[in-house]
Structure formats: structure tokens, C-alpha cells
Amino acid sequence: MRLIDEQYLETPFYGYPKMTAYLRQVEHYQINPKRVYRLMKRMGLRSVAPRPRTSVPNPGHKIYPYLLRDVKITHLNQVWSTDITYVPMQCGFMYLSAVIDWYSRYVLSWEISNTLDGDFCYKIEGVVILEHE
Hints:
The protein is an alpha+beta fold. It has four helices and three strands.
């Protein structure tokens, strides 16, 4: 713990992985990263580094309301949606765009492309309105 404390004062940006590497390489200790993590936690030491801010929205971006919040989906052709996903291939990706009916979860139409061009999403044709059986 003394060695961890001394090194932390010099390099407060070290987390437990770098601290473990330091103790192994420089101090020649055979130590497990889980032990270093536990000791640093006990000492109240945390890496002084920026944390990811993936959930903080940009204040300039418009917030769109969720229009289906109180809507009960009770029949076919009431709500459709579209989605884009990628399919990994041996040499790259193929991109799949599909239109689905929320009630039946039936794929109404789809299109596949080898580029993530927006044009292929607009080319989805042959969407057939289903009759309730």
C-alpha cells in the first residue's frame, strides 16, 4: 500500500491496470490486478482522468417527443417503423434496412446494401398493406 501511495502521488492518472504494471515491472512484485484494485479502493484512490460523457446531451440539440408513449397498438397497419443494422461478412459489412409492423412484427419490406448510403433506405419498395385475417 505504501508503494501504491507513493506512485499515486507521482502519477495520479494511473488506474489499477497501470499501477499493476508499474508494481510488476519497476518494483518486481508478482501482484494480481484484482488485489491492486481492492487496495486502491480501500485507500480511496481513483484515477484522475476524464470519464466518458456518453449520456450527456448537447444543449443545442432538439429533443423530439416520443409520440407513441400512451398509444395502445391494437391492430395491423397502425404503427410501422424502420431500422438499419449491419450484418458482418467475411470482408466487411452489409447494411440492412427494414420496415416492420409493430402489431404483427411482420417485416413489410427490406433493402440491403454494401455502403451506408442514405439512398438505399429510401429505395424500400413493395410495402404491402396487410389485411386483418
